[in-house]
Amino acid sequence: MANKPELMPGTLDMLILKTLARAPLHGYGIAQAIKRLSDDVLTVEEGSLYPALQRLLLQGWAKAEWRMTETNRRARFYTLTPAGRKQLGVELSEFDQMIAAIHRVLQNA
Amino acid sequence: MANKPELMPGTLDMLILKTLARAPLHGYGIAQAIKRLSDDVLTVEEGSLYPALQRLLLQGWAKAEWRMTETNRRARFYTLTPAGRKQLGVELSEFDQMIAAIHRVLQNA
DNA sequence: TTCTATGCATAGACGTTCTATGCTATGGGC
DNA sequence: GCCCATAGCATAGAACGTCTATGCATAGAA
C-alpha cells in the first residue's frame, strides 16, 4: 500500500524546465539528469515524464525536434522557448515562496 | 484556467500533524493556524481539510472527540496519537530529503 | 431578525503521477 | 546469427490529492 511518490507532486514541470535551461535534451536524458543531480532521490517515471513534456509543448514553453543522439539513436530534443524561460522564473519563485511558508508553519514550535 | 493550488500537494498531512503536535485542535482551528502561521500563503480549503482529517483518523495518527470550544460551540477536537507523532517525524525527514534533492537539481547551473 | 463567523461534512470535477503496456533500434557478448 | 541490456518514445487507465460547490447548523453582533 503506502505508495510514496518518487517525486514531489507539482514540481516536475519546474525540474524539467530547469534541466532544459542548461541545454536542449531529449526525454530520456532529462530523466537521467534529474535522477543523477538529485543523487537518485528523484526518479521521473516515463508515465509522468512524457505527459509533462506534452504539457510544456502545449503551453509553448518548449519546442521539440527529432535529432540523432551522440550514440546514433533518433530522439526528440526539447528546447526551452523564451516563454519557457520566463515560466521557469515564475515557478522557481512560487516554489520558494511555498517552501518558505511551509517552513514558517513547521518551525513554529 | 491555470489553477495554481494554494497548497503544495502531499504536504497537507504533515502540516496538520505538526499543528496538532502543538496542541489538540478542531478542524476549523487547524485551517486558521496554518493560514496564520504561513502569513496567508497557505490556505487549507475545507474540501481538502476534512478528507485529510479522515485519513489521519483511519491511519490511527489522530483521534477525535467532540467538545465545546471557548466560544461555546461544539467542535471535533483532534489529538495526535503516539503513532501520529512518529509519523510526523517520518514525514518531516522525507520532506527535508525531497527539498534537498530538488535544490540540488535547481542549483546545478 | 438578519448577517457574519464558526463549525462539520460530502460529492464530483480535475490535474498529476504511477503502473502497465507496447513498440523500435543499437551495440555487445556468445 | 542471436540474445539481451540499454536507449528511446508514447499511451491508457488507475490511484490519489486537492478544489469547487453544496448542504447543514448555531452563536453572537448589528
Summarize the structure in words.
The structure is a homodimer of 109-residue chains. Chain A is of the alpha+beta class and 109 residues long. Chain A has one domain (12-107): Winged helix-like DNA-binding domain superfamily/Winged helix DNA-binding domain (Arc Repressor Mutant, subunit A, Orthogonal Bundle). Helices cover 57% and strands 15% of the residues of chain A. A three-stranded antiparallel beta sheet of chain A has the order 1-3-2. In chain A, a hairpin with a 5-residue loop joins strand 2 and strand 3. In chain A, helix 1 (12-22) crosses helix 4. The longest helix of chain A has 26 residues, at 82-107. The first copy, chain A, is globular, with a radius of gyration of 15 Å. The first copy, chain A, starts with 11 loop residues before the first helix and ends with a helix. The model of chain A has no long low-confidence stretch (mean pLDDT 94). The interface between A and B is medium-sized, with 31 and 31 residues. The structure holds a DNA duplex (30 and 30 nucleotides).
**Order of strands in the sheet with most strands of chain A:** 1-3-2
CATH class annotation of chain A? Mainly Alpha
**Chain pair with largest interface:** A-B, 31 and 31 residues
Instruction: Give the N-terminus to C-terminus distance of chain A in angstroms.
Output: 32 Å
Helix content of chain A: 55-70%
Largest sheet of chain A: 3 strands, antiparallel
Q: Tell me the number of helical segments of chain A per DSSP (H or I, 4 or more residues long).
A: 4
User: Remind me, CATH topology of chain A?
Assistant: Arc Repressor Mutant, subunit A
Q: What count of domains describes the coordinates of chain A?
A: 1
Unreliable stretches of chain A, pLDDT < 50, 5 or more residues? none
Structural class by secondary-structure content of chain A: alpha+beta
Q: What is the oligomer described by this structure? A: homodimer
Strand percentage of chain A:
5-15%
User: So, the CATH homologous superfamily of chain A?
Assistant: Winged helix-like DNA-binding domain superfamily/Winged helix DNA-binding domain
Written as H for each helix and E for each strand, in order along the chain, the element string of chain A is HEHHEEH
| Rg of chain A (C-alpha, Å) | 15 Å
Q: Report the CATH architecture of chain A.
A: Orthogonal Bundle
Strand elements of chain A, count: 3
Mean pLDDT of chain A: 94
State the shape of chain A.
Answer: globular
